[in-house]
Amino acid sequence: MTEPDDSAEEGESTLPHTSAARTAKLASLPLGIAGRAVSGWGRRLGGRSSDDVNAELSARAAEQLFDVLGTLKGGAMKFGQVLSVFEAAIPDAYAAPYREALTKLQTAAPPMSTRQARRVLTEQLGTSWRRRFAEFGEEPMAAASIGQVHRAVWHDGREVAVKIQYPGADEALRSDLRQLMRFSRLIQAIVPGTEVKPLLNELADRMDEELDYRIEAEHQRAFATAFADDPEFVVPRVVASAPKVIVTEWVTGTPLSAIIADGEQARRNEAGRLLTEFLYSAPARASRMHSDPHPGNFMITEDNRLCVIDFGACLRLPDGIPYGLGEITRLALEARPAELMAALREHRFVRPDADVAADDVLAYLAPFSQPLAGTTFRFTRRWMQKQATRVGDARGSDFQTARSLNLPAEYLMIHRAAAGNTGILCQLEAEFPIRAIAERWIPGFLPPEA
């Protein structure tokens, strides 16, 4: 293998990681929206229809959203990736431009320079890192929020994926999340139908784990062992790891985003079933839950298995899924408000000082359990939009009921994973026997006597 000359690199790109530079870039989002709103008001006065002006403003906001979140990488892009899962909740009148822009954030970001990549590899794997590879592709195959992936051949002949963390990613991630939190209310207006601040809080809480690839490697090894030789799932084995580099087996397949874009209905249904089976079976099989469900982390292989390729955000569940989750879901389905309220209080989902009627809580939760009411369910964007509108209407009773509810810390990542999974199912418009998955893998969902 020919060793490239590290000193011959030109045009080295930089990741803007200083607080001032990144703040200015992120501040352009709300400022841009405000400026376009003023110009749009002027065009309406000039005689253009509101629909035409609103469509143009949405398209430009989406374009700016992708440009800013994508080019900054770090926490900005990570936030965009999480946000992309919930595009199914965006009202149809706004959805088209956001769908395209947010989907790009799942797999695309400007790459670091070759010199930067080599420097990180030297720091993490040693000065003789090239000898560990029979071949190494200098051009990245994919770029994500805090790292990019290169295709290579390990010294023993195995094809591998080499994920390299961007220099300064840790500093950029912390800076981004601080600044995005400041602008959370204004960003809320960019993507209707989502709750921005809770997403940012959760990302901040998990930041240190996602920055250490050794933790990701530990998670991936546990999943790979649990799902080894599984007929329905593929988890690439970890070959080597360091704090900012992880090497895993290479797997080829069709990205889930491609199936969302133009997959046949039967393939959509099967992808949705596999995704849900993986999410809810993993705690029992691997004592962990995969908690970063966006389409860029999944693909379908040629033999129709679901391949999972990113384990940066995982929740350790040594005792499996908490019993309370299944119990509360079952009681909501069975329309038993008094027992539901008792279970919610027992598991700390209702604030101790909350004065809320059991019937109101049932009315709030029952629609979320609807997919499990029958043998099968068809997830649709319209269904998700209806739920987002229902709970997001500040004038409605469900909005007021939600203010009395609490999300215990131990359920935070489970909620993110379940909500993200549902978002993808609605993007897929998938229909499959979801109740059987719940009965098999969610403790408490079946009555105690069953």
Textual characterization of the structure:
The structure is a single chain. With 450 residues, the chain is an alpha+beta fold. The protein folds into three domains: 125 residues, no CATH class; 90 residues, Phosphorylase Kinase, domain 1; 199 residues, no CATH class. Helix content is 54%, strand content 11%.
List the uncertain runs: 1-19, 26-58, 70-77, 190-194
Helix amount, in percent?
A: 40-55%
Residues in β-strands, percent:
5-15%
Cα(first) to Cα(last) distance is 62 Å
Structural class designation: alpha+beta
Net shape: globular
Number of helices: 19
Biggest sheet overview: 6 strands, antiparallel
Q: What is the domain tally?
A: 3
pLDDT averaged over residues: 78
How many strand units?
14
* Rg from alpha-carbon coordinates: 23 Å
Family: Belongs to the protein kinase superfamily. ADCK protein kinase family.
Domain ABC1 atypical kinase-like: 104-319
Pfam families: ABC1 (PF03109)
GO molecular function: ATP binding; kinase activity
Entry summary:
54% of the residues lie in helices and 11% in strands. The protein is α+β, with helices and mostly antiparallel strands.
Task: Set down the secondary structure blueprint.
Blueprint: H1 19-45, H2 50-72, H3 74-85, H4 92-104, H5 114-125, E1 133-136, E2 142-143, E3 147-154, E4 159-165, H6 169-182, H7 184-190, H8 196-205, H9 207-211, H10 213-226, E5 233-234, E6 238-242, E7 245-249, E8 254-255, H11 256-262, H12 265-286, E9 288-290, E10 298-300, E11 306-308, E12 314-316, H13 323-333, H14 337-346, H15 358-369, E13 377-378, H16 381-392, H17 397-402, H18 412-428, E14 431-432, H19 434-441
Parallel strand pairs: 5-11
Antiparallel strand pairs: 1-3, 2-3, 3-4, 4-7, 6-7, 8-10, 9-12, 10-11, 13-14
